[in-house]
């Protein structure tokens, strides 16, 4: 019910595809070398900050994200991550008359830790607790992410395995009886990198999930002292390409980002705003 196309139906973790802040979305959703939601090893590079994101999608759907990040000594970092996708459906009785609105949501709360393993290599892991609310019928589950990041002077390479052991259950009640169902979340493998070429950061990523392979590309240009332009593209489940773009504003104690995404099937098209405070 959260997604408009049947392609989402077999994927219990479909809502997790929408992870990431405005920077990640604008770069073609390439986050394996830059986003702690996609690769826990990136948390090893974080400083103390608080991030909030809001994404508007079609069919009255909204994506919310919060993240708190903290550097850890020696040479590590941690993050508290929260991700939620929600909408509502108008209820109707057997005569077709409107009744109450039915809420539908999926959420994930994670705790991740990373540290430098050697001179240029970082490793990390994060544990996730998932929640599901389908018109008052609630459920939950768990999963584990592992990742590594190699950071050179111009190059970065990252690999992450997400949702190991991941599943989401749902408890149903009807006619005085209760039953429960459990859906497995497909394991996701991410592999990608970035390269800084004369002030332009170029990104690329391959994602393997549930027998499907997607690729994404992006570029980030420093257009001024405090202004950054971003653009990207991502293949979309064999249905075409999603084009993305946006910009970022940087200040001494905060940053602001905007992103948009098109979508050949309409499920992911929308706008996103993110902000991060450093303290």
Verbal overview:
The protein has one domain (11-88, 102-278): Porin (Beta Barrel), CATH 2.40.160. It has a 14-stranded antiparallel beta barrel with strand order 1-2-3-4-5-6-7-9-10-11-12-13-14-15. Helix content is 2%, strand content 65%. The longest helix has 5 residues, at 22-26. With 279 residues, the protein is mainly beta.
Keywords:
279 residues; mainly beta; Porin; 14-stranded antiparallel beta barrel; 1 helix; globular; disordered N terminus
Rg is: 19 Å
Number of beta strands:
15
- Proportion of beta-strand residues: over 45%
Helix content: under 10%
Number of helices: 1
CATH class call:
Mainly Beta
CATH topology: Porin
Poorly predicted runs: 1-10, 173-178
What's the overall average pLDDT, rounded?
A: 85
- Indicate how many domains the architecture comprises: 1
Molecular shape? globular
Structural class: mainly beta
SSE series = HEEEEEEEEEEEEEEE
- Tell me the span between the first and last alpha carbons: 39 Å
Largest sheet: 14 strands, antiparallel, barrel
Strand order, largest beta sheet: 1-2-3-4-5-6-7-9-10-11-12-13-14-15
By CATH's scheme, which homologous superfamily applies? Outer membrane protein transport protein (OMPP1/FadL/TodX)
CATH architecture: Beta Barrel
């Amino acid at each position: 019910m959260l997604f408009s196309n049947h392609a989402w139906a077999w994927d219990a973790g479909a809502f997790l595809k929408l992870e990431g802040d405005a920077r990640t979305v604008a770069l073609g959703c390439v986050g394996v070398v830059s986003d702690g939601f996609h690769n826990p090893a990136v948390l090893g590079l974080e400083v103390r900050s608080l991030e909030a994101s809001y994404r508007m999608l079609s069919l009255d759907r909204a994506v919310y994200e919060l993240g708190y990040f903290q550097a850890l000594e020696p040479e590590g970092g941690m993050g508290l991550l929260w991700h939620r996708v929600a909408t509502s459906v108008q209820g109707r009785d057997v005569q077709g008359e409107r009744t109450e609105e039915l809420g539908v949501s999926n959420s994930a709360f994670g705790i991740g830790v990373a540290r430098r393993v050697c001179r240029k290599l970082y490793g990390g892991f994060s544990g996730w607790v998932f929640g599901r609310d389908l018109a008052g019928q609630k459920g939950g589950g768990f999963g584990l992410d592992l990742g590594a990041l190699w950071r050179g002077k111009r190059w970065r390479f990252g690999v992450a395995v997400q949702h190991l052991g991941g599943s989401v259950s749902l408890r149903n009640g009807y006619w005085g009886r209760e039953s429960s169902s459990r859906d497995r979340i497909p394991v996701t493998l991410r592999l990608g990198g970035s390269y800084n070429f004369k002030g332009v950061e170029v990104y690329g990523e391959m994602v393997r999930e549930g027998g499907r392979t997607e690729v994404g590309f992006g570029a980030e240009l420093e257009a001024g002292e405090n202004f950054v332009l971003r653009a990207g593209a991502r293949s979309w489940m064999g249905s075409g390409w999603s084009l993305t773009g946006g910009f970022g504003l940087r200040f001494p104690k905060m940053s602001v980002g905007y992103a948009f995404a098109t979508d050949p099937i309409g499920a992911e098209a929308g706008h996103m705003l993110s902000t991060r405070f450093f303290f």
